[in-house]
Design a protein that fits this description.
The relative contact order is 0.10. By secondary structure, the chain is an alpha+beta fold. Strands 1-3-2 form a three-stranded antiparallel sheet, with helices on one face. The two termini are 44 Å apart. A hairpin with a 6-residue loop joins strand 8 and strand 9. Helix 2 packs across helix 4 and helix 5 crosses helix 6. It has six helices and nine strands. The chain folds into three domains: 45 residues, no CATH class; 79 residues, GMP Synthetase, Chain A, domain 3, CATH 3.30.300.20; 65 residues, Ribosomal Protein S8, Chain: A, domain 1 (2-Layer Sandwich), CATH 3.30.1370.50.
Protein backbone atom coordinates (compact mmCIF):
# COMPACT_ATOMS: atom_id res chain seq x y z
CA UNK A 1 0.00 0.00 0.00
CA UNK A 2 1.38 3.37 -1.01
CA UNK A 3 1.67 5.97 1.73
CA UNK A 4 -1.22 8.21 2.74
CA UNK A 5 -1.78 10.78 5.47
CA UNK A 6 -4.71 12.86 6.69
CA UNK A 7 -4.38 16.64 6.80
CA UNK A 8 -6.66 19.42 7.97
CA UNK A 9 -6.15 22.57 5.89
CA UNK A 10 -7.97 25.72 4.80
CA UNK A 11 -7.96 24.61 1.16
CA UNK A 12 -6.53 21.94 -1.16
CA UNK A 13 -3.49 24.09 -2.03
CA UNK A 14 -2.52 24.29 1.63
CA UNK A 15 -3.19 20.56 2.01
CA UNK A 16 -0.87 19.83 -0.93
CA UNK A 17 1.90 22.01 0.52
CA UNK A 18 1.61 20.21 3.87
CA UNK A 19 1.61 16.80 2.16
CA UNK A 20 4.77 17.62 0.21
CA UNK A 21 6.42 18.71 3.46
CA UNK A 22 5.41 15.60 5.42
CA UNK A 23 5.85 12.96 2.73
CA UNK A 24 9.03 14.46 1.19
CA UNK A 25 7.61 13.73 -2.25
CA UNK A 26 6.96 15.96 -5.27
CA UNK A 27 3.42 17.29 -5.64
CA UNK A 28 3.31 15.56 -9.06
CA UNK A 29 3.11 12.25 -7.19
CA UNK A 30 0.48 13.24 -4.59
CA UNK A 31 -3.31 13.15 -4.93
CA UNK A 32 -5.45 15.17 -2.51
CA UNK A 33 -8.85 13.70 -1.68
CA UNK A 34 -11.25 15.89 0.35
CA UNK A 35 -13.02 13.69 2.92
CA UNK A 36 -15.23 16.38 4.40
CA UNK A 37 -15.47 19.77 6.08
CA UNK A 38 -14.65 20.53 9.71
CA UNK A 39 -14.89 23.74 11.72
CA UNK A 40 -11.13 24.19 11.45
CA UNK A 41 -11.01 23.52 7.70
CA UNK A 42 -11.09 20.74 5.12
CA UNK A 43 -10.36 17.18 6.20
CA UNK A 44 -8.11 15.89 3.41
CA UNK A 45 -6.40 12.65 2.60
CA UNK A 46 -3.07 12.90 0.78
CA UNK A 47 -2.33 9.78 -1.26
CA UNK A 48 0.94 8.87 -2.97
CA UNK A 49 0.04 8.20 -6.59
CA UNK A 50 3.01 6.64 -8.41
CA UNK A 51 4.08 3.59 -10.40
CA UNK A 52 6.90 2.25 -8.22
CA UNK A 53 8.42 0.08 -10.96
CA UNK A 54 8.66 2.94 -13.46
CA UNK A 55 9.91 5.37 -10.81
CA UNK A 56 12.79 3.02 -9.98
CA UNK A 57 13.58 2.65 -13.68
CA UNK A 58 13.65 6.43 -14.15
CA UNK A 59 15.95 6.73 -11.13
CA UNK A 60 18.42 4.23 -12.59
CA UNK A 61 18.25 5.92 -15.99
CA UNK A 62 19.13 9.24 -14.39
CA UNK A 63 22.24 7.73 -12.78
CA UNK A 64 23.37 6.02 -15.98
CA UNK A 65 22.80 9.11 -18.13
CA UNK A 66 24.81 11.22 -15.66
CA UNK A 67 27.67 8.73 -16.10
CA UNK A 68 27.32 8.87 -19.92
CA UNK A 69 26.76 5.13 -20.07
CA UNK A 70 24.82 3.55 -22.93
CA UNK A 71 22.47 1.03 -21.37
CA UNK A 72 19.42 -1.21 -21.57
CA UNK A 73 17.18 -1.66 -18.52
CA UNK A 74 14.57 -4.35 -18.02
CA UNK A 75 12.09 -3.65 -15.21
CA UNK A 76 9.38 -6.05 -14.08
CA UNK A 77 7.11 -6.39 -11.08
CA UNK A 78 5.69 -9.55 -9.50
CA UNK A 79 2.36 -9.93 -7.61
CA UNK A 80 1.29 -6.34 -8.15
CA UNK A 81 4.42 -4.69 -6.90
CA UNK A 82 5.36 -6.99 -4.01
CA UNK A 83 8.62 -7.66 -5.86
CA UNK A 84 10.35 -5.38 -8.34
CA UNK A 85 13.31 -6.61 -10.39
CA UNK A 86 15.69 -4.57 -12.53
CA UNK A 87 18.33 -5.85 -14.97
CA UNK A 88 20.93 -3.54 -16.53
CA UNK A 89 23.06 -4.38 -19.58
CA UNK A 90 25.79 -2.00 -20.76
CA UNK A 91 29.36 -1.87 -22.05
CA UNK A 92 30.36 -0.66 -18.57
CA UNK A 93 29.01 -3.60 -16.57
CA UNK A 94 32.26 -4.10 -14.65
CA UNK A 95 32.26 -0.43 -13.58
CA UNK A 96 28.66 -0.63 -12.40
CA UNK A 97 29.22 -3.93 -10.58
CA UNK A 98 32.39 -2.78 -8.81
CA UNK A 99 34.88 -4.85 -6.83
CA UNK A 100 33.09 -7.85 -5.29
CA UNK A 101 29.78 -6.33 -6.41
CA UNK A 102 30.02 -3.39 -3.98
CA UNK A 103 28.86 -0.75 -6.49
CA UNK A 104 25.95 -2.98 -7.51
CA UNK A 105 25.04 -3.44 -3.84
CA UNK A 106 25.16 0.34 -3.27
CA UNK A 107 22.89 0.98 -6.28
CA UNK A 108 20.40 -1.58 -4.98
CA UNK A 109 20.36 0.07 -1.54
CA UNK A 110 19.65 3.45 -3.19
CA UNK A 111 16.81 1.84 -5.16
CA UNK A 112 15.30 0.29 -2.03
CA UNK A 113 15.50 3.60 -0.18
CA UNK A 114 13.78 5.36 -3.07
CA UNK A 115 10.93 2.82 -3.22
CA UNK A 116 10.48 2.92 0.57
CA UNK A 117 9.75 6.67 0.45
CA UNK A 118 6.56 5.92 -1.51
CA UNK A 119 5.13 2.91 0.32
CA UNK A 120 4.64 1.44 3.80
CA UNK A 121 4.84 -2.14 2.52
CA UNK A 122 8.00 -4.23 2.53
CA UNK A 123 8.82 -4.61 -1.14
CA UNK A 124 11.59 -6.88 -2.40
CA UNK A 125 13.72 -4.81 -4.77
CA UNK A 126 16.50 -6.56 -6.69
CA UNK A 127 19.04 -5.30 -9.19
CA UNK A 128 21.28 -7.37 -11.45
CA UNK A 129 23.90 -6.09 -13.87
CA UNK A 130 25.24 -8.20 -16.71
CA UNK A 131 24.05 -11.40 -15.05
CA UNK A 132 26.44 -10.88 -12.12
CA UNK A 133 23.97 -11.84 -9.41
CA UNK A 134 22.60 -14.90 -11.19
CA UNK A 135 26.15 -16.17 -11.86
CA UNK A 136 27.20 -15.37 -8.29
CA UNK A 137 24.12 -17.18 -6.92
CA UNK A 138 25.08 -20.30 -8.87
CA UNK A 139 28.67 -20.17 -7.55
CA UNK A 140 27.45 -19.69 -3.97
CA UNK A 141 24.99 -22.59 -4.21
CA UNK A 142 27.85 -24.86 -5.31
CA UNK A 143 30.00 -23.59 -2.43
CA UNK A 144 27.14 -24.09 0.05
CA UNK A 145 26.48 -27.66 -1.08
CA UNK A 146 30.15 -28.66 -1.08
CA UNK A 147 30.77 -27.16 2.38
CA UNK A 148 27.58 -28.58 3.86
CA UNK A 149 28.56 -32.11 2.74
CA UNK A 150 31.96 -31.64 4.41
CA UNK A 151 30.36 -30.39 7.65
CA UNK A 152 27.84 -33.23 7.68
CA UNK A 153 30.65 -35.77 7.23
CA UNK A 154 33.21 -34.35 9.69
CA UNK A 155 30.76 -32.85 12.24
CA UNK A 156 33.02 -29.76 12.32
CA UNK A 157 31.57 -26.28 11.73
CA UNK A 158 32.98 -24.20 8.87
CA UNK A 159 33.00 -20.40 8.73
CA UNK A 160 32.79 -18.93 5.23
CA UNK A 161 34.37 -15.69 4.04
CA UNK A 162 32.47 -12.47 4.94
CA UNK A 163 29.63 -11.79 2.50
CA UNK A 164 27.03 -9.10 1.84
CA UNK A 165 23.35 -9.65 2.69
CA UNK A 166 22.44 -10.93 -0.79
CA UNK A 167 25.20 -13.55 -0.75
CA UNK A 168 24.37 -14.68 2.80
CA UNK A 169 20.70 -15.04 1.88
CA UNK A 170 21.62 -17.35 -1.04
CA UNK A 171 23.58 -19.63 1.32
CA UNK A 172 20.83 -19.61 3.99
CA UNK A 173 18.12 -20.46 1.46
CA UNK A 174 20.16 -23.19 -0.23
CA UNK A 175 20.77 -25.01 3.07
CA UNK A 176 17.48 -24.20 4.83
CA UNK A 177 16.01 -27.69 4.35
CA UNK A 178 19.15 -29.74 4.98
CA UNK A 179 18.71 -32.36 7.71
CA UNK A 180 22.38 -32.60 8.76
CA UNK A 181 23.47 -28.95 8.92
CA UNK A 182 22.16 -25.46 9.71
CA UNK A 183 23.47 -21.94 9.10
CA UNK A 184 24.04 -18.92 11.31
CA UNK A 185 25.39 -15.44 10.58
CA UNK A 186 28.12 -14.07 12.85
CA UNK A 187 29.95 -10.74 13.03
CA UNK A 188 28.98 -7.18 12.16
CA UNK A 189 28.99 -5.03 9.02
CA UNK A 190 31.48 -6.06 6.34
CA UNK A 191 32.83 -8.81 8.62
CA UNK A 192 29.47 -10.59 8.86
CA UNK A 193 29.89 -14.18 7.71
CA UNK A 194 27.95 -17.44 7.62
CA UNK A 195 28.92 -20.43 9.75
CA UNK A 196 27.68 -23.82 8.57
CA UNK A 197 27.22 -26.05 11.61
CA UNK A 198 26.39 -29.75 12.09
CA UNK A 199 23.06 -30.64 13.64
CA UNK A 200 23.14 -32.78 16.74
CA UNK A 201 20.87 -35.55 15.57
Amino acid sequence: MQKKIEIIAKNTEEAMAEAVKKLHISSDNIFINVLGELEEGLNCEALVDINLTLEGKRYLEGILKALNIVYQIEARSVNGEEQIHYIIESYENSLLIGIKGKTLEALQILLRNLISTYTKDHIIVSLDIGGYRSNRSHQLEILATKTAKEVAKTKVAVKLQPMNSFERRVIHEKLSDWRDVYTESEGEGENRAIVIKPKNN
